[in-house]
Design a protein that fits this description.
heterodimer; A: 177 residues; alpha+beta; Alpha-Beta Plaits; four-stranded mixed sheet; two-stranded antiparallel ribbon; 20% helix; 25% strand; globular; B: 313 residues; mainly alpha; Formate dehydrogenase/DMSO reductase fold; 11 helices; 2% strand
């Protein structure tokens, strides 16, 4: 099993609904976010191109945060989901410094927090909060090992890019372009 | 032109707009840990070479400082943790992939050793001390017998302590400035040079001072080589590393780095020590203090600039 997410940048309008849904679902403290939306502008006026990307932890297949964690709090869960066990985290910040995507943050309660792919919902057979709430339905979540999952089907037929692959992380967010 | 903006207002504390997860505590610890590693290395190395009589400042006096250095370093590390009450989790795991994990275990070996080593020499340095209790004298006699074993462990672990801090930073490939394997040897060399500088301050006899002045000059030359080599590596590397180097070659860290770390912290003290070896009378405190200031600046600048360097967003 290999969970992954595809984000259709052609359909995303940058409304940030996913960000709010995540904050509500996961009780993210005020002023913090586990996911965010990036607006990327390319070119020189008047020939501009714009892209919206809903971003979160990339749940890398080769995660530097898990490597550098001194206590084993950061670990790879079933389906390749990268999680933090709060009771094992000492809040040293090594994983935060190691993440090329800056996807982690120190929770006010001390431990390090991040996107979980809403694993608590996924285990019940539901979709992650961001996916289920997206008004343009531009987010697709599923198992890459299953050729019939929505995410597998999307990346089989669409052109996609992954971010900062040069960091050697093998990220599992696929941005459809 | 490409411009990328986070439009959803991500402003995570200590992460945005620029990573600053590590404040003064980490570079302070890197400094005191490096100095302690330097002193303990020279103490155990020269002990093993049978120079106890010739180099008393190295083997007996300077190590008395190291427990205090290491303990203040540990306090700083503890203050840096965000989830403090769980710090003991460091000692429920040994994670070979994580330099921080081996650092934690190394400190667990080196700190008690530095205390024991100092304890065996306290009465030699301060002859008036009376332990009062008989069992303390027995313990002391027992430990004195095992100094050689301690020295063997210490010579090995002090090098790990000196080098792991650099390796820890260099393991973060997300921060291009840190992502160079030169950082480990550079931090080890700078810790050794600070250790040698402190030993010179305590040294009373000429032979010891002369030796450590010579050692210091050689180490500073090595450090300068590492620094030049580091920037050559950056400039020949990818765009992100070229940009990391640009912060020091015209960017905002240029002046503090080249003036305080390289010029005042390495070149000037090396020249002063050379002059001293040639017979000029120079107060030993001047090069020693310059080296220590250069050392602490190096740690602070590298830790901060590393967090400012990133994969372009």
């Amino acid at each position: 099993m290999r969970y992954a997410m595809a984000i259709d940048t052609k359909k995303c309008v940058g409304c940030s609904d996913c960000v709010i849904a995540c904050q509500l679902e996961n009780n993210v403290p005020v002023g913090y976010c586990r996911e965010w939306v990036v607006e990327s502008t390319n070119g020189t006026y008047p020939n501009l191109e714009m892209e919206f990307r809903s971003e979160r932890c990339h749940h890398c297949a080769n995660p530097p945060c898990v490597r550098c964690c001194p206590t084993g709090a950061s670990h790879i869960e079933e389906g390749g989901v990268v999680l933090v066990t709060h009771e094992q985290c000492i809040g040293c910040g090594a994983c935060i410094a190691s993440c090329p995507y800056d996807a982690r943050y120190p929770h006010p309660e001390g431990y390090v927090d991040k996107c979980t792919f809403c694993i608590h919902k996924v285990r019940k057979g539901e979709q992650p909060a961001c996916v289920s709430v997206c008004p343009t339905q531009c987010l697709y979540f599923g198992d890459l090992d299953d050729p019939n999952s929505e995410v597998s089907k999307k990346i089989a037929i669409r052109k996609y890019k992954r971010l900062k692959t040069e960091a050697g992380t093998d990220p599992q967010l696929y941005f459809l372009i | 032109m490409e411009e990328e903006l986070i439009i959803s207002g991500r402003m995570n504390y200590k992460v945005d707009p620029m990573l600053h997860i590590w404040g003064w505590e980490i570079p302070f610890y890197l400094f005191v840990g490096g100095v302690a590693a330097g002193i303990l290395f020279f103490a155990s190395f020269y002990y093993l070479r049978g120079k106890e009589r010739v180099y008393p400042a190295t083997i007996k006096i300077a190590p008395l400082l190291t427990p205090f250095l290491l303990i203040t370093g540990l306090v700083a590390l503890f203050m840096d943790l965000n989830h403090k009450m769980y710090f003991w989790r460091l000692y429920t795991h040994i994670r070979m992939e994580s330099p921080m994990s081996w650092g934690a275990w190394t400190l667990m070996v080196v700190t008690p050793l530095s205390i024991i080593w100092s304890f065996t020499y306290v009465r030699e340095v301060f002859p008036k001390i009376d332990w009062k209790k008989r069992w303390i004298y027995q313990l002391e006699a027992f430990l004195v017998k095992h100094r050689r074993t301690m020295a063997w462990i210490m010579v090995f672990y002090s090098v790990i302590l000196g080098i792991y801090t650099g390796i820890l930073l260099s393991a973060f490939n997300a921060r291009p400035l840190w992502n160079t394997s030169i950082l480990g040897p550079l931090f080890l060399a700078s810790g050794l040079s600070a250790g040698a500088a402190l030993i010179i301050v305590f040294a009373k006899n000429k032979i010891e001072r002369k030796l450590f002045s010579q050692i210091d000059i050689v180490i500073i030359a090595a450090e300068l080589f590492f620094i030049v080599h580091m920037f050559m590596g950056f400039l020949a590397s990818t765009e992100v590393q070229q940009e990391a180097a640009a912060m020091f070659l015209g960017g905002r860290y240029t002046l503090p780095f080249w003036i305080f770390v390289v010029f005042l912290g390495m070149i000037v003290p090396a020249i002063l020590e050379l002059l001293e070896l040639r017979g000029q009378r120079i107060p030993v405190y001047i090069p020693a203090i310059l080296i220590l200031i250069g050392n602490i600046m190096l740690r602070f600048i590298i830790v901060e600039a590393g967090q400012a360097s990133r994969y372009l967003y």
